[in-house]
Amino acid sequence: MEETISLKELLETLKKRIVLIVSITLIAAIASGVISYFYLTPIYQASTQILVSQTKDKNSIYNPNEVQTNLQLINTYIGIIKSPVILEKVAEELNSGITADQISKEITVANETNSQLINITIQDANAQQAADIANTTTKVVQKEIVKNLKADNVTIWSEAKVSDNPSPVKPRKLLNIAIATVVGLMTGVGLSFLLEYFNNTIKNEQDVENILELPILGVIATIDDKAIENAQARKAKRGETIGS
Length: 244
Fold this sequence. Notes:
With about 240 residues, the protein is α+β, with helices and mostly antiparallel strands. The protein has 2 domains: about 10-35 and about 175-244, no CATH class; about 45-160, 2-Layer Sandwich (Alpha-Beta Plaits), CATH 3.30.70.1130. The chain contains 9 helices and 4 strands. The protein has helices at about 5-15, 20-40, 65-80, 85-95, 100-105, 125-150, 175-200, 205-210, 225-244, and strands at about 45-50, 105-110, 115-125, 155-160. The protein has a 4-stranded antiparallel beta sheet with strand order 2-3-1-4. It is elongated. The relative contact order is 0.16. It is found in: Cell membrane. Its main location: membrane. GO terms for molecular function: protein tyrosine kinase activity. This is Wzz/FepE/Etk N-terminal domain-containing protein.
């Protein structure tokens, strides 16, 4: 016989396991909050931009070929910025104990499509150090390109600054808690259905029909001992009243 599950049965399963579902959801949310607020290190971000452009004199006019050349140079410059040579010089300039390997893990270099701007982004546990690394990197890059490539087409477009009350970009505490809550809820619901699936006990007459495929001839009602005692007490009281 084909087994079907009604919406009512699903809701009854959830109702029966509501304590389990709520408990798992709360545990997940609380655990995420504790980890996000007390254990994860806040990470701050600082960004600078450099502009790649050709040097022009006053009589020069706009040339699309020059822009295309600059766009092709950007990929080369991105590789130069992330190279160990540049990062080692940045570490030397900072002289703060941070190494080139550490900077390599914190730096992200990218540019927007068809843009001559290169974005240099640093993520560090210290907001001021993140800004210092970003600004020092742009200065070193500009100096090294002029020195080694004999090119003066790199201009510092914007510098990183630290606000009076910087906000970390990671961890996103409320988002982490929200995600943990959803995951905990899904886990609780899934576990409830799994426990119900592996529960082979016969709980009612419908289970007899579905599992044993036998017709129901009768049902034994549940006897309430307290109700019996009350009935006996009323019967005895009526007997005493008649006898008197």
